[in-house]
Predict the 3D structure of the following.
Amino acid sequence: FSIDVGERKKAIYQSSRIKSSYPDKVGTISWLEYKKVFKDGYLTVEFFAKYDGIIGVLFRYMDYTNYYTLEIGGATAKFIQFRKNIGGRFITIQKSMGKGYELGLI
């Protein structure tokens, strides 16, 4: 948790350049402990990218080997992909090449 990241007053912030060299592996995961279950709705997330790489969000998280992820690649890996992890095995549901993010607020 940090203050004043990308002009935001409160943010979860990763200050290191930790990353995975393997496309089927997951990098750093951070979550907020929240006991309420949502069945339908919208998820809005803002990212402030300080380094190039892959950023994303996990949802329908059950445990470390069962969840969905939406990932966006930066300048060197321009893509957007939607995947699910079932029992530790990733399945790509949809992937679009050529679009990614630029450094700064996304």
User: Anything to note?
Assistant: The beta strands are 48-49, 54-63, 66-73, 79-86, 89-97, 104-105.
